[in-house]
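User: what does the whole thing look like in 3D?
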Amino acid sequence: MEIKKTQHSKLDTIDPNNSPFGVNISDHMLICEYENGQWGKPVIMPYGGMNYSPALMAIHYGQAIFEGMKAYKDKNNDVFLFRPEKNFERFNKSAERLAMPPITKEIFLEGLYALIDLDRDWVPTKEGSSLYIRPTMFASEEMFSARISNKYTFAIMTSPANSYYDKPLKIKIENHYTRAVSGGVGFTKCAGNYGASFYPTLLANQQGFDQIIWTDSQEHKYFEESGTMNVMVRIGDIIYTPPVSNTILNGVTRDSLINVARHNKIEVREERISVDSIVNAYQQGTLKEIFGCGTAVVVNRYSHVGYNDNIMELPTLKDEESYAVLLKKQLVGIQTNELDDPFGWRIKI
Amino acid sequence: MEIKKTQHSKLDTIDPNNSPFGVNISDHMLICEYENGQWGKPVIMPYGGMNYSPALMAIHYGQAIFEGMKAYKDKNNDVFLFRPEKNFERFNKSAERLAMPPITKEIFLEGLYALIDLDRDWVPTKEGSSLYIRPTMFASEEMFSARISNKYTFAIMTSPANSYYDKPLKIKIENHYTRAVSGGVGFTKCAGNYGASFYPTLLANQQGFDQIIWTDSQEHKYFEESGTMNVMVRIGDIIYTPPVSNTILNGVTRDSLINVARHNKIEVREERISVDSIVNAYQQGTLKEIFGCGTAVVVNRYSHVGYNDNIMELPTLKDEESYAVLLKKQLVGIQTNELDDPFGWRIKI
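Assistant: Here's the predicted 3D structure for the full assembly of 698 residues, as structure tokens:
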């Protein structure tokens, strides 16, 4: 791997501990180009422009995927990654569905480790902060024929990130727009899934909601995801979450929270959640919590759930009563080396 | 509008009459940037790289749309566009669904006219050739937060194009993968729709088919589109085509062919086409033609249609018996100023 270091670190002007999510991109990026059926040599270089023209095929035909992961610093300034192999595996599942070449484990993981090591001063230390990591792959041929690209760029960029959201959200159960359909690309982290969700979310915002709970495409009767996160529901003392499928992302945070919950002897059921069952539980007073989970936000609690013209107001639990708070605390504790890691998830860089 | 002309025309080395579809991009492009809630001044400049980084939001979140249109040269070397207002209108419909700002008619159409006028030497003269025109708009902010971009680039690029396909295709009726779903973005020309279709098409290719006929997401029982085109079916002497919907693109070629057909007293019915009705017509010997239609290819006939493990072989009509051939000839005749234009579709540049 070649490393070209920047001569002008932006750390003179940017404070990683005071950096809103995703805005300030760290000094270096990893770039690896695919051409003639093979990946070239990965290069770490100063982050910046790449001379792509507006004919870049990723822009026209959407062969573009990404991952989201984080690096954390503990009190000794040691830097840790969290389950990066899960992101590597999912990245290649996305690639396959988008007819893109798989990246090698060597380029993805060793590139990642080298990049984080080089830019370790960008990992913030403030509580709740982390270095957000964005691996991406996109079609980089420049032409107009609607076909599979012959060239791709794999890139890893990073950005210091404060907490993503900070208050319980009002969320709307979507019964018109659709995020994903069986036989589609809903289970991948491809670019098209996100742009397609912005307009329905904007409409929800105009109705006073912060986010959407996506439902199935056939009947809009079953929970799928919430915003860009997986969704979990606590009824009584059981957590329910929809099983992963070809319309639901196999979230690393989702899987980790399930494991942490079970480690705490909390029952988790991976089953379809009908809107009717939520309304019933609400009416019976057993609906205790609904929360989203994902890498960027970790866990986000919901306070109000809109459905048709009704609003269900969820109970305001004390922190010590909330599974969302408990699970988040334990997961972040593992990620930041504050707590033991019985699962072997942490990787020291 | 500012115009910066190239000092080095590529026409020294590229022959527009000998240029495969979409590969060679003409000397100039139009660029207009959106920021702070408004479009800036459009600039025509030499086609080339734009210094985008791999953090370009279009690559990550798929806010990216395009149009496809063509310019034609007649025997007097006059240059014509075909119904450009239709593309302008559809472009803004795509933009709205992708939560992108509308482009003004002035920037889109006057920019288009000025660009085609400047690069008129790029319009090929060979029969069946044209200058393919690619307007596009994409999110051009560079950051990682999964939200609506605040910056956009509108671009128009062009490329000389020989005929896209040249032989009748073998096509497969898709009954597993899905292109579009109600409440989704199927009716738009957004990037994500295309990348999502490549893998299912690749699988069809591996089974010996050239393209896919997409069916509805609920039951896979009704025709929707074929490949990246609208689809038309001739049973007896009636043409059937699915009505446009929120899963089917409102094709300019589709609409034009319907008008040309009706002008020829051919009956056209815009109704849902079930796979069962196709199989029945095939068994009764009344299934005469199936063809795709779109700007890039105009009309493409299908010779074989695969469904489950069966292949339906369509009759080999003589050119003078084929509606597909008749309609294509008349449409291209109008586009290239070989025939009268009773519809007022042609615009001279």
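In plain terms: The two ends of chain A are 17 Å apart (CA to CA). Chain A touches chain B through 68 residues (CB under 8 Å).
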